Amino acid sequence: MTLATASPLELEAIFHGLEHELKHFIALLEQEQRLLGQRQPQTSALDEIRQAKLANAGRLEALETRRRDWLAQSGLSNDPLELQTALAGQPQLAQAWWKLVTLTRRAQARNRLSGDLIRQRMALHSRILDSLHERAPGHYGADGRPGAAPARLNVSA
Fold first, then answer.
1. Lower Cβ count inside 10 Å, N or C end of the chain?
2. How many angstroms separate the CA atoms of 35 and 49, rounded?
3. Closest listed residue to residue 22, CA positions, set 81, 92, 109, 91
4. For residues 136-157, b (16+ Cβ closer than 10 Å) or e, as one string?
């Protein structure tokens, strides 16, 4: 099958689905970043976003599999430049493809930013725990739990 005989309507539907899911993923990342920027983010809200991102990733993967299958049935590889060339005669599909490329790059940048924010939070919490452990050795164990209580000085005698 070639692009001329393949169903451009099917590819258009796949592109539309990918666009919708990428926009949703970006919105989830933006919500996550707002929460991570708060002084004390609600862990329940972060968990809800994590669950939503996992569900979204599953839908994106299913659509990406459909896109790859469509390409293979059309005799095309997964090379973005080859697809761009093949879509040259289909301006609406070519525009939709470049919109997906742009959204994908935006999602990747947002995802990197979320990862950086999470790493910063983890480093901050690690420094706080280290500081607590240094200031009161024996009060907190390496796991952050209270250790054995230190002996108290008996001044009543």
1. C
2. 10
3. 109
4. eeeebeeeeeeeeeeeeeeeee
Residue 49: CB partners within 8 Å, gap ≥ 6? 28, 31, 32, 35
What does the alpha-carbon distance between residue 11 and residue 9 come to, in Å, rounded to a whole number?
5
Interatomic CA distance for residues 134 and 12, integer angstroms:
60
Residue identified by tokens 């099958």 is: 1
CB 77 within 8 A of CB 71: yes
Q: How many CA atoms lie within 13 A of 29 on its CB side?
A: 22
Beta carbons of 15 and 97 less than 8 angstroms apart: yes
Buried b (16+ CB within 10 A) or exposed e, 52-78: bbeebeeebeebeebbeebbeebebee
Amino acid of residue 85: T
pTM higher than the cut 0.90: no
pLDDT in tens, 54-104: 999 999 999 999 999 999 998 888 888 888 888 988 999 999 999 999 999
Q: Is the dihedral of CA 38, 44, 49, 53 positive or negative?
A: positive
